[in-house]
Design a protein that fits this description.
The chain is of the alpha/beta class. The chain has 17 helices and ten strands. The chain has a four-stranded mixed sheet with strand order 5-2-1-6. The protein has a two-stranded parallel ribbon with strand order 3-4. The radius of gyration is 34 Å and the shape is elongated.
């Protein structure tokens, strides 16, 4: 029986070796650090990030804009011999092989950072011996083509850190509200701790597990001479961030400040960007968009709308479905500083400021008054003959609305006002329409 098992293992090894050799050329072609999907960022009028649009919430940064503590943490826990091996760590492979042999299944992979990058970029996450061999070949090709810093930079910009954050910059801003260059040891250790199992180790999922895993990374950093005793003690005493400290990532569009402010403004920007560049470019292309958005004015505008609606509903309970809109513009430049399209974007994304087709009504009055003032009229100027009908295309028309009153008692308000005006003007009785001004 042992002879049969040995024969089977030899045949299986030969077939696997043949498949691996056949894939060498393919591995060489795949071993390229290709650009990843990047989040597009919209900045407000002061240059601060306001909104992001993305498929994968990722913001690439060069390695020199990543805190040294982050580099030390990720190397300490994921690949302590990263800077000395050539893509494959024999010590880790032997250790992983022994654990797999004892478990009679694949429970450990012994992957280096380079192997993890190869797997994340090109291979399936399903654990098989054939995939492991391809992973090794890709890692060897990557080490030949790129420097250690290039590989580490790509790795830090690629890996998933949980909560919807891809790459260290996005994760740092999401969990701690700061750039990756500003990470302290405890923060860097937490991010490094999440790489192994971000879905189960994230603070929002299990804060205690995240704390234990972070502390393990900190102790590894200390054992490898990357932290002093006082640094270790201070880092171990640092609390784990809860949901109040980081941004949620509910979907493909996110407010960079983590709040619900400006959702109508954000959606209008998204619609315009999609129309200009297409969805793929906006969601994957890493655009940097500079807008006229004013967060403080936006908050005031939203407060004004919701407060006024609440006052009206309190006085008139039947108006509970009342909506409102608000647009704040710079009168000189025409820049839109704030935009409110309704009382609650999450309940109704329909923008009543930009999408509702309504008559302008009295909103034209300030424009007309401004034009008159520019032409030398004063608030005390009296204009006569304003009740004379306007003749256009052979018909006569006179403005009429709910604010005007008329002495013409035979007015049929169920019909079009313009038609009624024509009839009155042509009335042989010569009755006149008097409007109050």
């Amino acid at each position: 029986m042992l002879g049969v098992a040995s024969w089977y293992a030899a045949v299986r090894t030969a077939l696997l070796t043949h498949a691996v050799v056949r894939d060498i050329d393919g591995a060489a072609a795949l071993a390229v650090l290709a650009p990843r999907a990047q989040a597009s960022t919209v900045f407000d009028r002061t240059g601060a990030p306001a909104f992001r649009f993305f498929v994968e919430q990722r913001i690439d940064v060069p390695l020199d804009r990543v805190s040294p503590h982050m580099v030390e943490a990720i190397v300490a826990v994921e690949d302590r011999r990263f800077f000395s091996h050539h893509g494959i760590d024999p010590v880790r492979i032997v250790g992983a092989a022994w654990r797999n042999f004892r478990a009679h299944r694949i429970v450990a992979g012994g992957s280096t950072i380079t192997q993890q990058l190869a797997r994340a970029a090109q291979l399936s996450p399903v654990r098989t011996y054939q995939r492991k061999m391809r992973e090794i070949m890709l890692a060897a090709q990557l080490e030949q083509r790129y420097t250690k810093d290039q590989i580490l930079e790509e790795y830090l910009n690629t890996v998933y850190f949980g909560e919807g954050y891809y790459g260290v910059e996005s994760a740092s801003r999401g969990y701690f509200g700061k750039a990756a260059s500003e990470l302290r040891p405890a923060e860097a250790a937490l991010l490094a701790a999440l790489v192994r199992s971000p879905s189960s180790d994230a603070p929002a999922v299990n804060a205690e597990r995240a704390r234990r895993r972070r502390n393990l990374v900190l102790r590894l950093m200390y054992a490898q001479g990357k932290l002093t005793g006082p640094q270790l003690s201070a880092s171990l005493a640092t609390s784990i961030p809860d949901r109040a400290h980081h941004q949620p990532a509910p979907g493909a569009v996110l407010a960079a400040n983590g709040s619900a402010t400006g959702l109508y403004f954000r959606e209008e920007v998204r619609r315009q960007l999609f129309a200009l560049f297409g969805a793929d470019k906006v969601l994957r292309g890493g655009l940097r968009v500079y807008s006229t958005y004013d967060p403080a004015m936006q908050r005031e505008a939203e407060s004004a709308v919701t407060t006024r609606i609440a006052q009206i509903v309190k006085a008139r309970p039947a108006a509970k479905d009342l909506q409102g809109s608000f647009v704040a513009m710079d009168a000189v430049s025409g820049e839109v500083r704030a935009l409110v399209g309704g009382r609650d974007f999450l309940a109704s994304s329909f923008n009543r400021a930009t999408q509702a087709h309504r008559q302008a009504g009295s909103a034209f009055k300030p424009i007309i008054y401004a034009a008159a003032l520019e032409r030398g009229y004063s608030p005390g100027s009296i204009l006569r003959d304003l009740d004379a009908p306007i003749v256009d295309a052979g018909a006569s028309w006179l403005p009429n609305g709910g604010h005007e009153k008329t002495e013409y008692t035979g007015l049929d308000r169920s019909r079009d006002p313009a038609d009624l005006v024509v009839e009155r003007v042509l009335d042989s009785a010569g009755k006149s329409l008097v409007t109050s001004r």
